[in-house]
Amino acid sequence: MNYTEAEAIFAEHGIQVVPAHVMPTVGQTRAIATLDRIRNRFGDHHARFVEEAAMANTLFDSPLFVKRARYVQELGSLEDVFDLLDDWPAEKRDATYEILAKACRMADQGIFPLPAIRENVRRFLLKQGVLANLEEVPPGSRRTADRNLCS
Fold this sequence. Notes:
By secondary structure, the chain is an alpha+beta fold. The protein has two domains: 53 residues, no CATH class; 83 residues, no CATH class. β3 and β4 form a beta hairpin.
């Protein structure tokens, strides 16, 4: 089958389509036929909405903050955690790191619940001594639900 239009929707968000027999990793999917069925039945606009909603399911309810040498890093999504893990020093990658990385990959595939990932990341950062308290985060950089972008 030809899924050119569905592939284009995934490509808009940098998601690579892999064959059905391959286990997808971060930034990959094998749900091309599913998105194509949605697109054919409900249209391109709805297919984009479904794909974007699936990506939004990787946001945490509330962010975590990581103490860095010169700044405080916000972790508000699973993607942010993957960036943190990618940048984690090789000499500090122990068994706890490997288990967390595996759990994050499982969460990205919808196998592991996102709230549990957030809690495990919090514990990991606490153990590493880099979890920032909310008081250590400058007020202007805190994400708030009631922030009005129009004023």
